[in-house]
Amino acid sequence: MPSSDIEKCFEIEQRLDDVAGVHVRRFYYSEALVDYPDEVRKIFSNDLKFFDKMVLRGSWSMVRKLMIQGMDLGHDQREESRDIIEEELDWIDGLLSNGGSFLVGDKFSRADLTAASLLAPIASPKEHPVYNDIPLPPKMTSDMKTWQERPAIKWVNKIYREFR
User: Fold this and answer.
1) Which of 90, 130, 144, 160 is the most buried (most CB within 10 A)?
2) What DSSP state is assigned to residue 22?
3) Is the pLDDT of residue 164 over 90?
4) pTM for the whole thing?
5) Within a 10 A sphere around the Cβ of 48, how many other Cβ atoms?
């Protein structure tokens, strides 16, 4: 891979980590943890042993409060993150507008892996081992439906089909 592609790959990864990843997570938790905390606790309890489930249940209100504070969650923050996600989808749509199959160069790269991984929660590819089994809050589900025809979301699903 030419050094210019390596630099571009790093820049894309960095932006995805710093922006898309943060806001996809905040988008989900701002609705799910704020309005449907019992559903999130059930998800967190998956695969825990009985004792650990009881510890989580007993400490859930504190865990929830710390997560809400630590990730700056709430209804306004959900809307802000949704808007930022749409900007990031616009950006990725632009990267894909040349008709290529990958974000950088002509081979699958770390940039593609990063983008597909961080956008999987809103693309919900059927090949993903987790995201199809998680109950999603209604506003998030509605937004995801409006995004399904976007080039970036179709691309994430294609990446999962071809490389998962």
Assistant:
1) 160
2) H
3) no
4) 0.92
5) 13
